[in-house]
Amino acid sequence: MENSPLKSTLRIALVGDYNPEVLAHQAIPLAIDDAAAVLDVTADYDWLATPDIASPEDLVGYDAIWVVPASPYKNENGAFHAIRYARENSVPFLGTCGGFQHAIIDYARNVMGWSDAAHGETHSEGRLVIAPLTCSLVEKRDTIELRPNTLIAKAYGQLEIEEGYHCNYGIAPLFAEALAQQPLKVTGWDDEGEIRAVELVTHPFFVATLFQHERAALDGRPAPLVQAFLRAAQR
């Protein structure tokens, strides 16, 4: 059986509440356009505000889904619909910062059965799988070590990278321990061993990072993970 030809036009859903003052939101279109030029594809993207996503049907027809930074979202259920739809339907998925955090909560609730899993920024009860970081990473840069032979390591072509952040919340220690035997694998750490990237190994392309790698585009640099994301969407 012959392989299907690669798609030349892609439809990308950018799930989040667009704010022109958010640096990551300024960077994402630039990163997508740059990656599309490198791959010689047309990438059309729609910003989907979280209140406008009422069910999984609102995601049908997209070749890839990116849950973007700047949470708390106006409607966190909209973000959860997008994440779960991508995870269950093998749609290429990218989550950064808030997208990373909500991908963790979705996995805890809907795969691991932690129905009370919640975000420490917006909830005070339940199992807070996303909790305050020991040290704030608002407008900080840090070194990240990548696990070999993973999607993210292959995208960057190296095992140590430096990227920027804008966040105060990450994976809580209690959940980090529970994640150890799951298909959602930790694929990036900081120097202290704190989780900075995950991948779902049972999925064609499901990658989430606490850092905002898309910001490279603001400096005119390529964003390797965005290129890998679009490449996955072509298939």
Describe this structure in words.
The chain is an alpha/beta fold. It is 28% helix and 27% strand. It contains 6 helices and 12 strands. The protein has helices at residues 23-39, 76-88, 98-110, 151-156, 173-178, 224-234, and strands at residues 9-15, 42-48, 64-67, 93-96, 117-119, 127-132, 140-146, 160-165, 169-171, 184-189, 195-200, 206-209. Strands 2-1-3-4-12-11-10-7-8 form a 9-stranded mixed sheet, with helices on both faces. The mean pLDDT is 96.
Short synopsis of the structure:
The chain has 235 residues and is α/β, with parallel strands linked by helices. It has helices at residues 23-39, 76-88, 98-110, 151-156, 173-178, 224-234, and strands at residues 9-15, 42-48, 64-67, 93-96, 117-119, 127-132, 140-146, 160-165, 169-171, 184-189, 195-200, 206-209. It contains 6 helices and 12 strands.
Number of strands: 12
Q: Tell me, what's the shape? A: globular
Structural class estimated from helices and strands: alpha/beta
User: What string gives the helices and strands in order?
Assistant: EHEEHEHEEEHEEHEEEH
| Average pLDDT | 96
- Please compute the radius of gyration using only Cα atoms: 16 Å
Largest sheet: 9 strands, mixed
The percentage of residues in β strands lies in: 25-35%
**Total helical elements:** 6
Low-pLDDT runs: none
Q: How far apart are the termini?
A: 15 Å
Helix content: 25-40%
**Strand line-up of the largest beta sheet:** 2-1-3-4-12-11-10-7-8
Quaternary state of the chains: single chain
